[in-house]
Amino acid sequence: DPDAVSVSGGRLSLEVREGDMLGGQASAQNVLLKDAPAEGNWTATTKFDASELDEEGQQAGLMLWHSEAPNTFAKIVFIDKGTFEQFEYYTTVNGSPGVLQTQQVTNPPGDVYLRARSNGAGTIFAEWSYDGNEWNRIGAPITSLGTDLKVGLKVSDDVDSDNAARFDYFRVDC
Prior knowledge:
By secondary structure, this protein is an all-beta fold. It contains no helices and 15 strands. The chain has a seven-stranded antiparallel beta sheet with strand order 1-2-15-6-11-12-13, with no helix packed on it. The chain is globular, with a radius of gyration of 15 Å.
């Protein structure tokens, strides 16, 4: 949604828009993707201010995209669950919801970091951090997506909102 994207103070702001990426649903409107490296190890990392994601279901983070129809992708996100927040990843393979892995957190700071580390052979580790130095793994490795991927950012919920995630950066290192 072009009206929900802006840049201010050096940060990319993506407002929450209705939709999600889960199972047969691929309706999230604020998803920005680029090709992941075709060979070798790579790491996709983002830092963003999640302080406005304060309504149940609001989420922001990384997307790993393989295909649509049937949907095969994973989202690695920070999400407000109503009474708590958590980092999670959720896979969808051939249109069917797959693995959900979570790590509940308390008192998250405004800025959070997410990364996806690929071994280049189809295994991806989802990780989160509060400082960009100490990383915590979110569950078991993701192994169901293959290697021909796009990677990028996602912000969504069940309803539109003026709340936004403000991204300092998104980068892919090889």
